[in-house]
Design brief:
single chain, 276 residues
Length: 276
């Protein structure tokens, strides 16, 4: 048996993570753990709703049926492969050889899933034709707590507020670039980049609330939303969940980056600036 530790003996001594300060290692592992959690939630959405929105060069496409399940499986395997980094770094009795081998197996499996999906979709969506729906397409538990707070979040989706969010987010991102390329102040760059992510999170919160409420009795909403939800609840909820998950992820990453800007010692930021 073993236990979770700040630095495992199995951690690669040649890796940049091992050579970093304790504060940097903590935030790096926290960010990696957050990414693993987001990937698992995204995959779970594909299994529950039977649809999996994915980003491609032309925008978002939607996998459905067996393709969605295979995409969810590949995402879960990728999360497991990245989680192996955390095990190697922080589990006291971890084996570096076993962790490395496990990651390689995961990456091969993910590549296989992607290749099968791409070939199937290019050849006419053979996997999508296999009507293997989600476990509970009409369920709302995965959207929690959105079903209880969507009315309170609606103001974030109003044109007046979204306009201010766009302006504020654009200004925060411009300041982040300024401190990255101009003044080269990594602490300020990280702070404003985190602020940009938080602002994006607030925007997506309003968007998710509007999507949810529009199909469930929001006054003034088009009846087409309710019809779409009734006709294909899995597809509608999958899109709604993607927006909701994106909002939570942006807020979480934003808070993490702002915390880094405030907690990392000055010497570490000076070293980062020197390397850049």
């Amino acid at each position: 048996m073993g236990r979770w530790v700040a630095l495992s003996a199995a951690a690669d001594p040649k890796a940049a993570w091992t050579k970093a300060s304790a504060e940097q290692r903590f935030f790096n592992s926290t960010g990696l753990g957050l990414t693993v959690a987001v990937l698992l939630a995204y995959a779970l959405g594909g299994v529950v709703f039977g649809y999996l929105p994915v980003f491609v060069l032309e925008g978002f496409a939607v996998l459905q049926g067996m393709a969605a399940w295979l995409g969810a499986a590949g995402t879960t395997i990728l999360a497991a492969g990245w989680a192996a980094h955390l095990v190697q770094r922080h589990w006291s009795s971890a084996s570096p050889t076993a962790c490395t081998t496990f990651r390689h197996i995961c990456y091969v499996a993910v590549a296989t899933c992607v290749c099968v999906i791409v070939l199937a979709e290019v050849s006419g969506g053979a996997l999508s034709g296999l009507r293997w729906g989600g476990l509970a397409p009409a369920s709302e538990w995965l959207l929690a707590p959105l079903p209880w707070v969507w009315r309170e979040l609606l103001p974030l989706g109003s044109p007046k507020v979204t306009g201010k969010l766009f302006l504020t987010g654009g200004a925060a991102f411009a300041l982040a670039l300024l401190f990255l390329k101009g003044f080269k102040w990594p602490r300020a760059f990280m702070f404003f980049l985190g602020a940009t992510a938080c602002i994006a999170g607030f925007y997506f919160l309003g968007d998710a609330a509007l999507d949810y409420g529009a199909a469930r009795g929001l006054p003034g909403a088009s009846p087409d939303y309710a019809k779409e939800l009734k006709a294909n609840p899995g597809r509608y909820n999958a899109w709604n969940f993607l927006t909701w998950l994106g909002a939570l992820a942006c807020l979480a990453y934003g808070v993490l980056m702002v915390s880094i800007s405030l907690a990392i010692p000055a010497r570490d930021f000076e070293a980062m600036a020197a390397r850049s």
